[in-house]
Amino acid sequence: MTLLRDPGAAAPQRRRVLVTRAIDPAVIEVLRAHVELSLNSDDADWSQLELIERLQGHWGALVTVGERIDAALLDACPELRAVCSLGVGVNNIDIAACTARGVVVTNAPDVLTETTADLGFALMMAAARRVGESERFLRQGAWTRWSCDFFTGMEVHGATLGILGMGRIGQAVARRGALGFGMPVIYHNRNPLPAEMAEPLGARWVSFDALMQEADHLVIVLPYSANVHHIVDARALGLMKPSATLTNVGRGGLVDELALADALGAGRLAAAALDVFEHEPAVPQALLDRPNAVLTPHIGSATRTTRRAMARLAADNLIALAGGSDPLTAVNPQVLG
Ligand code: DGY
Fold first, then answer.
1. Is 67 among the residues known to form the active site?
2. Does residue 168 carry a catalytic annotation?
3. Torsion angle, alpha carbons of 246, 185, 149, 295, to 10
4. Residues 295 and 270 sit within 8 Å (Cβ to Cβ)
5. How far apart are the CA of 268 and the centre of ligand 1, in A?
6. Per-residue model confidence as pLDDT tens digits over 159-172
7. Do 186 and 211 contact (CB within 8 A), yes or no?
8. Is the bond preceding residue 223 a cis peptide, omega within 30 degrees?
9. How confident is the model at residue 10, as a pLDDT?
10. Most buried among 6, 137, 187, 243, using CB within 10 Å?
C-alpha cells in the first residue's frame, strides 16, 4: 500500500492530483505532462480515513465509482477543487456538497454506453436462457443425458423488452433488442423520448406499473438517486409476469435485493441478472443461494478499450481544469467561471 509521488515532476506551480486507483498507464503519462501526480499504483483499497489523508494538499482527484466523496471528506480536504470521475454514475459523490464548496465534479458519459449496453444485453440473455445455471450443472459433472425439458428458458427474440431508464445506455439496449432481436420495446422514463428517437426503435413510453406488468425482460439502467431508492420493490416485483426476467446494470440501490431473492425463490419471477449491488462488493446470501440469479461483479464497462477511454476522459477533464479551461463533461457546471 504505497503512495508514489511522481519522481520527475515537482514544479511547485503545478496542480497536485491524486489518482485514487490504478488506471491505464498511458493515461497516467498523459496526465503527468500537465500535473503533479500522486498514484495508487498497487490499486490498494484505501479506507475513507486513508483517502482523506492521501488527499491532503491535493487540488484534484481522479476517482472511480468506488470512492465516497462526501461533505465530511470535502471539509477535511479544503484544497480539493476538482473531482473527476472515470465513471458515468456519480451516486458516490455528494454533488450538492461539492457545489456548495465550489468543487467542480466531472463524470465520463458516452464513452461506456455501448460497452455497458453489451453487458446488459448479455446478462439479460444469460438469465433468460439459463446460461449460468446450466454451465454450473455441466461443470459439476451432472450432465448425463439430453432431455426435452432440459434447462428450458424464456424466448428472447420477439419478446417484449422493458427498459427502466431510457438514457444513453437504455437506448443502446433498446437498439440491440429492437434492431437485432425483433423485440417490441417499452420503456419508462421521467420524460418520453422525442419521436425522432423513439420511432426508429418502435419504443413506447408506458407508466412504471405498465412496464412491470408488460415486460418479458426488464432491463434497469436508471441513474441512482435517493428518490428512486428501491424503486423496484416487493410491490413492483409483484406486478411482473412469473415468466419474466429482471436485469440490473444501473445501481444496486434501485432494487430491493431481498424482495427480489424472495420472488426468485417463490417462482414469482423466472430469473434475474445483476451486475450491481446495493452494498457492493457485498452480495446478499439470499441472492447467492438462488440458482436462477446471474451475478457479476460490476463489470458493465469492463473492456480494456472502454476503461482506457473512461480514464482518458477523466484525465482530459482534469487537464482542462488545471489549465483554467472548462472541462468537457461537468456535472455541476454552475461552479465554473
Ligand atoms: C459507471 O461508470 O457508472 C459504471 O457503473 C462503471 O462501470
1. no
2. no
3. -30
4. no
5. 30
6. 999 999 999 999 99
7. yes
8. no
9. 46
10. 187
Name all contacts of 13-17 with Cβ < 8 Å and 24+ positions apart. Answer: 14/322, 15/59, 15/60, 15/322, 16/57, 16/58, 16/59, 16/60, 17/58, 17/59, 17/60, 17/61, 17/62, 17/82, 17/318, 17/322
Query: Which atom of ligand 1 is the closest one to the Cα of 251?
Result: 5
Residue 203 backbone phi and psi in degrees, to 5? -85, 130
CA dist 294 and 311 (Å) reads 28
End-to-end CA distance of the chain: 37
Q: What amino acid is encoded at 327 in this protein?
A: P
DSSP code, position 229? T
DSSP-derived secondary structure for 38-101: EE-TT-----HHHHHHHHTT-SEEEE-TTS-B-HHHHHH-TT--EEEESSS--TTB-HHHHHHT
Residue nearest to atom 7 of ligand 1 (CA): 301
The whole model's pTM is what?
Answer: 0.93
**Cα dihedral value 19, 100, 66, 173, nearest 10:** -110
Cell of 160: 417484449
Q: Which of 219, 181, 187 is nearest to 300 (CA)?
A: 219
Point out the catalytic residue in the list 16, 34, 217, 251. 251
Residue with cell 459433472: 141
Instruction: Kindly state the cell numbers that stand for 282.
Output: 457485498
Selecting among 32, 50, 204, 280, the annotated active-site residue is 280
Backbone angles phi, psi at 56, to 5 degrees: -55, 130
Total number of residues shown for the chain: 337
CA distance 64 to 90: 9
**What is the reported pLDDT for 337?**
75
Looking at ligand 1, which residue's alpha carbon is closest to its atom 2? 87
List 271's β-bridge partners, or say none. 245
**Backbone phi, then psi, for 93, in 5-degree steps?**
-120, 130
